[in-house]
């Protein structure tokens, strides 16, 4: 049974999929140790780690670099990697881009938008595929709620069904009404992974910087489970104080020259 089959079985049993982003080896290791089912290396690495103004600046090289780091930190994890903006414009380009992410260590590739023909091309090339509809950061400048009218909701349901028909393994539902996400989850063979899409999805995903409060802002869809940003600032401030006041380093952080070597050394200098 493939890993994707195992996750499909979890959907059938009603077992939730716990998905979380990671961009580096130690974070990936901690997530595996804490029992995360799937690690997502999102193009959100751009705004959350690399200091870019937008997800659109993220390159395939960036993604490969961070996927490889996560793979080194979590050798056995199931990793979903984002295809960056404008790297899946044609079936051929999508296959080439996916091959790069798979070579870096991704088990599954994700892309944004209702493009069933891209799903087919990637499935034919042997990739597990995760789609992503609703709020698409790569394609929508304004970050706002999606599927808020009956017509928009019907459109997103139709998109999800077409992607399912094409063979997707997972689909991220971002910032859509809970009733629509529930309906899509019921209708699909693929597992739905929600973010700001209610509790009825097959799984949930968050950005690790958000749940640990290491980022710069709060989101309505997030819950803060830790205060890592505050802890980091506190630790750095204490270090700075200790260095300035001569309290760090202490004896135990260094070592001495042996007495005879010290004597010879000082004699040699005189
Ligand atoms: N740190 C981080 N967290 C994320 O959840 C995330 C990223 N980055 N980058 C990629 C996408 C973009 N996402 C976003 C970005 C902005 C909002 C946002 O502005 N939300 C509003 C509420 C919008 C509404 O309800 O209409 C908010 O106030 O939180 C939501 C999801 C989710 N993803
Ligand atoms: C928010 C998730 C789904 C994502 O696409 C990312 O982290 O880039
Ligand atoms: Mg993304």
TrEMBL record:
Its EC number is 2.1.2.11
Keywords, alphabetical = Magnesium, Metal-binding, Methyltransferase, Pantothenate biosynthesis, Transferase
The record ties this protein, via Gene3D superfamilies, to: Phosphoenolpyruvate-binding domains (3.20.20.60)
Can you tell me which residues bind 3-methyl-2-oxobutanoate?
A: 43-44, 82, 110
| GO annotation, biological process | methylation; pantothenate biosynthetic process
Top EC class for this record: transferase
Identify which cofactors the protein needs according to its UniProt entry. Mg(2+)
Quote one Gene Ontology molecular function term.
methyltransferase activity
Q: Which residues form the active site?
A: 174 (proton acceptor)
Q: Recite the UniProt cofactor note for this protein.
A: Binds 1 Mg(2+) ion per subunit.
Question: TM segments?
Answer: none
Q: Does the keyword Metal-binding apply?
A: yes
Binding locations of Mg(2+): 43, 82, 112
Name one cellular component (GO) term.
Answer: cytoplasm
Family, as annotated: Belongs to the PanB family.
- Protein name according to UniProt: 3-methyl-2-oxobutanoate hydroxymethyltransferase
Q: Which organism is it from?
A: Methylosinus trichosporium (strain ATCC 35070 / NCIMB 11131 / UNIQEM 75 / OB3b)
Q: What is the lineage of its organism?
A: Bacteria, Pseudomonadati, Pseudomonadota, Alphaproteobacteria, Hyphomicrobiales
Gene this protein is translated from:
panB
């Amino acid at each position: 049974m493939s890993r994707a089959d195992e996750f499909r079985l979890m959907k059938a049993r009603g077992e939730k999929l716990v998905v979380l982003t990671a961009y580096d080896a130690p974070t990936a290791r901690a997530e595996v140790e804490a029992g995360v089912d799937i690690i997502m290396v999102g193009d959100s690495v751009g705004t959350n780690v690399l200091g870019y103004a937008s997800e659109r600046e993220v390159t395939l090289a960036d993604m490969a670099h961070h996927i490889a780091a996560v793979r080194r930190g979590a050798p056995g994890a199931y990793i979903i990697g984002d295809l960056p903006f404008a790297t899946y414009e044609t079936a051929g380009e999508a296959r080439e881009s996916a091959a790069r992410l798979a070579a870096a260590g991704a088990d599954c590739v994700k892309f944004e938008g209702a493009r069933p023909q891209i799903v087919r091309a990637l499935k034919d090339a042997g990739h597990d595929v995760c789609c992503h509809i609703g709020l698409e950061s790569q394609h929508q400048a304004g970050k706002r709620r999606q599927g808020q009218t009956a017509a928009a909701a019907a459109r997103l349901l139709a998109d999800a069904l077409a992607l399912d028909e094409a063979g997707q393994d997972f689909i991220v539902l971002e910032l859509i009404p809970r009733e629509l996400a529930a309906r899509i989850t019921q209708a699909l063979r693929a597992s739905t992974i929600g973010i700001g899409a209610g509790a009825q999805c097959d799984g949930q995903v968050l950005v690790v910087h958000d749940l640990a409060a290491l980022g710069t802002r709060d989101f309505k869809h997030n819950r803060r489970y830790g205060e890592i940003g505050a802890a980091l600032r506190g630790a750095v401030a204490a270090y700075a104080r200790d260095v300035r006041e001569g309290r760090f380093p202490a004896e135990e952080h260094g070592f001495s020259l042996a007495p005879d070597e010290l004597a010879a050394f000082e004699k040699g200098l005189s």
